[in-house]
Amino acid sequence: MYPEKLELLIAGEWCQGSEGVQEAVINPATEEVIAQVPHASASDLDRALQASADGFKIWKKTPANQRQKVMSDAANLLEERIDTVSKTLTMEMGKPLFESKIELQFAIEVMRWYAEEGKRAYGRVIPHRFPGTRQMVLKEPVGPACAFVAWNFPANNAMRKIAGALGAGCSMLIKPSEETPGTAVAIARSLQDAGLPPGVLNVVFGVPDDVSRHVLSSWIPRKLSFTGSIPVGKHLQKLSADTLKRCTMELGGHAPVIVFDDANLEKAMDDMVAFKFRNAGQVCISPTRFYVQEGVQDEFVHGVVERVKKIKVGNGLDEGVVMGPLVGHRRLEVMDDFISDAVAHGAKVETGGQRLGNQGYFFPPTVLSNVSDDARIMTEEPFGPIAPISSFSSFDEVVQRANSLPFGLASFVYTQDGAKATAIEEELEAGMVGVNHPGVSTPESPFGGINESGYGSEGGIEGLDAFLRTKFVTEYGV
Fold first, then answer.
1. Residue 477: its pLDDT value, please?
2. Hey, which of 76, 180, 185, 476 would disulfide with 151, CB 3.0 to 4.6 Å?
3. What domain range is 426 assigned to?
4. 88 and 157 both lie in a single domain
């Protein structure tokens, strides 16, 4: 049974939509309807916007140490409830239960980190030029914020925005994905139970474009944070322009993995197979373009295929499952199209390649070799469990190929040559680079891309600063 009661949170009260509109939530492993998520009407959205404005007046004046206590207490409550919430996450998203718990623990750490870092939103004093004057730079919360988030990480996508805003002293109106609503509701309940004042956090659902147009046309939100696709990000940025909202855009990627012939191949294969197929490849920083130097290509392909064949696919609630289903039926068709196009361009399917069964949205972990750069999967983000492998000969060649796309979120490199590592770190056009390991995302480090992968950062002091504005104050004779 689905553990979470789905409701809207407006002005501190849990409620259904005023017009009674609902949407089915489907378990991607069974295709069963497990819940109904309420849609907010236009009047509900107006109430949420006003509540956000009212909540901001309270929260911005709440001392940082008091904000920290509420957030820390909420993190503790969420940790106590982790078994129940992880079941919610697995049922609505599909990922294995152990992955859901890892994601939730990460989200809890994000809340704790921002709670503490909010106490260190320091300004500075600038030495004066004239006797009797004082010059100060102050950091203030930017104002009520709004956020729209994707479905692939229901806890992390929501928490990075909620915790960043609350840590900085902002209120937040958030629309989580209607496909994965329960996890965000559980996060909001933990904050409400920890004593968050009414209106500081408002949670709504609805038809995405209708909600975003309504919310972004309002002058109340002064900040937008979005996680999702590049086309939608561009659309939201245009909608935000009329009211000149500050934006943080965490958009799609197409991460290259560069494996040089001097790499520790065993570690590279272990790391990348685990990282590629977590969450069934539905990860914005997932390794998605494998460039392997010619001398070790065959060994790499063979080793990856051996490891992939051991991955158990199934319902995320079942024992021993390593990879769950895709989030929806639409993703199965996308995988089929990518594979048929790659094969038409000369690629070989080493393992996988066809849907598993006819119930649930299961697609096997798939490895393609000899993949041409002209294949769609090498130029479009696959967002699924397909690993396309291609070979390269020289440093300059692989840098050019890795940087050939407009994306720039994450990149991964494997080499035991320190000089080569330093050189390619400088050359790669990406917001995050992992050398000899994939750990490019932690609560205390900036997470974000460049070029068409977006701008701005979540996490780290940069993520807090995204919700702060700068004020210069100069005094004389006081």
1. 87
2. 180
3. 255-442
4. yes
Work out the number of other CB atoms within 10 angstroms of the CB of residue 54.
19
- Label the pairing between strands 124-126 and 133-141: antiparallel
The amino acid at residue 387 is A
- Examine residue 3 and state whether it is found in any structural domain, yes or no: no
Instruction: Please tell me the distance from the alpha carbon of residue 198 to that of residue 190, in angstroms, as a whole number.
Output: 13
Which residues are tagged catalytic? 250, 284
237, 348 Cβ separation under 8 angstroms: no
pLDDT on residue 53: 98
Are both 241 and 279 inside the same structural domain? no
CB 403 within 8 A of CB 421: no
User: E-strand spans in 180-238?
Assistant: 201-203, 223-227
Count Cβ neighbours within 10 Å for each residue of 381-394 and write b for 16 or more, e otherwise: bbbbbbbbbbbbee
**328-350 residue pLDDT tens:** 999 999 999 999 999 999 999 99
CATH number of domain containing 261: 3.40.309.10
Please tell me the total number of residues recorded for the chain in this structure.
Answer: 478
Same domain? 317 vs 196: no
Q: Please tell me whether residues 326 and 210 are part of one structural domain.
A: no
Same domain assignment for residues 130 and 270: no
Residue 227 three-state SS: strand
- Has residue 57 been placed in a domain? yes
| Nearest CA among 442, 439, 404 for reference residue 105 | 442
- What average pLDDT does this structure show over 429-435? 98
CA-based nearest residue to 2, from 29, 41, 42: 29
The yes-or-no verdict on residue 406 having pLDDT over 90 is yes
The DSSP secondary structure of 33-98, one letter per residue, reads EEEEEEPPPHHHHHHHHHHHHHHHHHHTTS-HHHHHHHHHHHHHHHHHTHHHHHHHHHHHH---HH
Residue 1 included in any domain: no
Are β-strands 468-476 and 133-141 bridged in parallel, bridged antiparallel, or unpaired? antiparallel
Tell me: do 273 and 246 sit in the same domain: no
CA distance 302 to 308: 10
Closest-CA residue to 331 (of 28, 24, 25, 23): 28
> Does residue 447 belong to any structural domain of this protein?
no
Written as one letter, the residue type at 404 is S
Q: What percent of the chain has pLDDT over 70?
A: 100
